[in-house]
Amino acid sequence: MEPMDTVGKSKEDVSLPKATMFKIIKEMLPPDVRVARDAQDLIVECCVEFINLISSESNEVCGREERRTIAPEHVLRALEVLGFGEYIEEVYAAYEQHKLETLDSPKGGRWASGAEMTEEEALAEQQRMFAEARARMNNGNVNPPRQSDSD
């Protein structure tokens, strides 16, 4: 039986995409430096453990505030508690940059901030989308055929 490192998951179920991690490792090093495959695997395992550690401590910080949702400030506080305080400024800057990038992305755009659409506009858009969906469901028929009682 495998050890359960994460709630409900075996160690093999919890990992990071190795190709992405290897690319990050390669980009951080000078071009003439090579990294052995087992060293790359070890770095990936360290990253997984770090994520587990930060997540667990963030959960503890969140719980002490009697909250159920871990917020960015809980993660930053967890970094401080775990002795990674010197990274907080850089982590916060990366978080702020991420927020800016996701607001400008198609996924984050006008739906993420909610500030670009009034409630009335959102309701009108919702009604328009419902009407389109109904039309598609009815194959373009506004009034779908009714089944007779004799069927």
- Mind summarizing the main beta sheet? none
Q: Report the mean per-residue pLDDT as an integer.
A: 81
The CATH topology label of the domain at 18-104 is Histone, subunit A
Number of helices, where a helix is a run of at least 4 consecutive DSSP H or I residues: 6
Return the CATH class of the domain at 18-104.
Mainly Alpha
Could you say what the CATH architecture of the domain at 18-104 is? Orthogonal Bundle
What ranges have pLDDT less than 50 throughout 5 or more consecutive residues? 108-114
Q: Classify the beta-strand content into a percent band.
A: under 5%
The total of beta strands comes to 0
What would you say this structure looks like, in words?
With 151 residues, the protein is mainly α. The protein has a domain of 87 residues: Histone, subunit A (Orthogonal Bundle). About 5% of the residues have low confidence. This is Transcription factor CBF/NF-Y/archaeal histone domain-containing protein.
Which short descriptors sum up this protein?
CBFA_NFYB_domain, protein heterodimerization activity, nucleus, 0% strand, extended, 60% helix, mainly alpha, Histone, subunit A, 151 residues
Topology:
Blueprint lengths: L17 H11 L8 H28 L7 H10 L6 H17 L4 H5 L5 H19 L14
Helix pairs in contact: 2-3, 3-4
Give a short overview.
Keywords: Nucleus. It is found in: Nucleus. With about 150 residues, the chain is an all-alpha fold.
